[in-house]
Write a structure and sequence with these properties.
Elements: H1 3-23, H2 27-39, H3 47-50, H4 68-82, H5 107-135, H6 139-147, H7 153-174, H8 201-224, H9 230-253, H10 255-267
Helix pairs in contact: 1-2, 1-7, 1-8, 2-7, 4-5, 5-7, 8-9, 9-10
Amino acid sequence: MHKNGHLGVNLLLSAPFISFFIIYELYVFMIIFLGLILAWSGLPDVDIYLQRYDSVSYSAYPVFHWPWVPIMQLTNKLMNFMGNYIEKVPTDYKMESVTHRGLTHSLWFSIVFGFIVAAFFACIILTSMAFEVFYGIENYMGLQQLLNANPLYLMVIGFAAGFLSVVFHCIGDIFTPTGIHFLTPRTDYGFTLDQFYAKNEVANRSALPLGLIMMTYAVFFGIAYGEINTIYLVSGFIGLFVTLIPLWLVFVKTRIGKWVYIIYDFFT
């Protein structure tokens, strides 16, 4: 999928989490989580740029790509380590270069990236605590009031946002014929639902409205929680997922979607 397609899928799959944040009045967490999920919706496709270089090294990459060197190396090491416990996962893979829909579209990359984001938020928390201890500036307490929760949960939110942004992206790619392997760096045909090509214009344009519909219901769910029977609200969520996704695929795979956008483009 392309940029708008992945934005839509990430919105769609983030909807239940948004309801949770609203229910517990964790609005700052919600903004951080959703902002990162959307900002990183296309993150795994960084491999499109990294595959231009012959090796994963500081000498091969331009300076603005240097941060990817340790991230890809950690991903490689984690995969090789887990290969000792999971069948079909390599134990001695030596990454010479990055390939599209390889390691960046894997469980191991999502875990490593999640921990890196969590570590970033840990640094923010430690800095605020240090200012409070050494300078008497009540940053930590102020942060707690702002978040309406223990600031340590920022690390959890950071990990979740980093981890899920990659996972949600991979779920979007499963709809395309190539699919993904998720546990290995293989780039041949992997697990796929084979519904449409990544360049499908209707799929990429319609995924965003689909995600917005689910996000609208997620906000309604959070606001209405406690006022409307929870069973009805949950049933609505499940019902929307079960009906909207198949209808979306029909819209994408038939001429309906193409004609809708021809008419839309004509009048706009």
